[in-house]
Design goal:
9 helices, Bactericidal permeability-increasing protein, domain 2, alpha+beta, disordered N terminus, 48% strand
């Protein structure tokens, strides 16, 4: 009955939600120019559920249905069909479909129709076929839902009809009411009309192809920074959806995607296989409206060196109760596997270079990237055994470790602005995101060949508003 062909585009909306989840994780930073890291640095992958509430305007939904409904919705050109009812009829849409009530996931609506009817009448072997026109309203209710195989499903019931003008045939000088005949025809076809609505929606609105496409897109490592050769890889696990419910003048639901997120520095050496099947959609009663996004930024070794020089140049350290003293005259930060190497140049009781190394971590109390497991490089130990054994007591390592700290305020602020920009943007015409951030905190710290890579976890609340498509 209703040709909705690709008008509501609910499939597009939901597929955009899935792709939007991926976009949220792919937030980028401005990283310094550097060479490609040969061996990828992999951050710990963490499971996360990204949820995006969906707000679909019922007013817009009504508009889209009306734009897709044909004018002629029923035609019977034979007197002999329908058990020789000797009736022909055509039904046109007189006006727009109007939603009359919305309760939870059930929409009740009515459609005004104009009907032309022609009745064949035989008297004393003479047949005539007078015609008439009249108007009525058909009333339906549709329950909206999504099946586990990602199909949009409606269960539509024909409720009733209401005469606007009653059908009367004028035969000679006699008016013959044909309301009972037309009413029976309409009642018999309400269920057929309802099935046509359901079948049209089922045939045109499957989400699976869009979800499979988005799933495969997510599995491919995504180049987040060409300058720093930094990649993000997602591993989708499950897809969730809450039942559609009417709230005010909107249909609301929540789309959720459970994923593993990996951040890699260095060119990935594998290509994931394309998938053709995905896990069944899981219906849940609720999904948290907050989601976490893992961002990353880099502290270049040049910047780390500059900060460290400000901290340590001119610092004097004494040993053996003041018997020995050294002054730091230069310091340079370099990578050494998972360690940061601090090439420290000193004068005083020991003149030369001391190589210290430590593992960088984020200290939430100091709000700095600090060093742990700080120790002397093996080559430095060998030299000091001969030239300065008093430096082997561990005092220098402890002092450097306690004083070393790289600020991450700029990283946190950049991460906040990056997320804010992402979650407050227009995806396409009529589809907008609105969001706010709860917190942005540093997470993991890794040493790459060209800098100190720090991840940031942003917790935010996002709403997807669908209006004016």
């Amino acid at each position: 009955m209703f040709a909705l062909n690709n008008k509501i585009q609910l499939n597009k909306v939901l597929s955009i939600c899935l792709l939007l989840c991926f976009k949220s994780v792919f937030s980028q930073t401005n990283l310094p120019q550097s060479s490609i890291t040969e061996k990828p640095v992999v951050f710990e992958k963490k499971p996360s559920i990204i949820s995006i509430p969906i707000d679909i305007s019922i007013e817009d939904l009504q508009s889209k249905i009306n734009s897709g409904m044909p004018n002629l919705i029923y035609e019977d050109n034979s007197f002999e069909d329908n058990q020789n009812d000797e009736l022909k009829a055509k039904v046109w849409r007189k006006g727009n479909l109007i939603f009359t009530s919305v309760v939870n996931d059930i929409l009740t609506y009515e459609v005004p129709l104009k009907v032309w009817a022609q009745k064949r009448i035989s008297v004393l072997g003479v047949s005539q076929a007078p015609a008439t026109e009249f108007e009525l309203k058909l009333k339906f209710s549709s329950k909206f839902g999504i099946t586990t195989d990602y199909s949009i499903q409606t269960i539509t019931n024909g409720l009733s009809y209401e005469w606007i003008t009653k059908p009367v045939l004028k035969y000679s000088y006699v008016e013959i009411p044909i309301g009972p005949v037309i009413g029976k025809l309409i009642s018999n076809n309400l269920a057929t009309f309802a099935k046509q609505i359901d079948q049209t929606i089922k045939d045109n609105y499957s989400l699976k192809p869009y979800v499979i496409e988005a799933w495969n897109t997510a599995q491919k490592p995504f180049l987040a920074s060409e300058e720093y050769n930094t990649w993000v890889k997602l591993e989708p696990l499950d897809v969730y959806f809450t039942p559609l419910k009417a709230v005010g003048k909107s249909l609301k639901s929540t789309f959720g995607l459970k994923i593993f997120v990996e951040t890699l520095v260095g060119t990935p050496i594998y290509t994931p296989k394309q998938i053709l099947t995905i896990p069944n959609l899981k219906s849940v009663s609720s999904i948290s409206d907050a989601f976490e996004v893992q961002l990353f930024n880099v502290i270049s070794f040049e910047e780390a060196t500059k900060i460290s020089r400000n901290m340590f140049l001119g610092q004097v350290y004494d040993f053996k109760n003041g018997k020995y003293k050294i002054e730091v005259t230069d310091l340079e930060i370099k990578p050494d596997g998972e360690y940061l190497s601090l090439v420290t140049t000193t004068k005083g009781s020991f003149k030369g270079q001391i190589f210290l190394k430590g593992i960088p971590v984020y200290d939430p109390v100091k709000k700095l990237v600090v060093l742990t497991k700080t120790e002397l490089d093996i080559k430095t130990k060998n030299v000091l055994h001969k030239a300065g054994a008093w430096l082997l007591e561990g005092t220098l390592e402890k002092k450097i470790e306690s004083e070393f700290g790289l600020p991450v305020t700029d990283i946190i602020e950049f991460g906040k602005q990056s997320v804010l920009q992402t979650i407050n943007s227009e995806i396409s015409k009529g589809i907008k995101m609105k969001g706010e951030i709860f917190s942005v905190v540093p997470d993991q710290v890794k040493v790459a060949e060209n800098g100190i890579l720090a991840t940031v976890i942003a917790k935010a609340k996002v709403e997807l508003v669908v209006k004016g498509m």
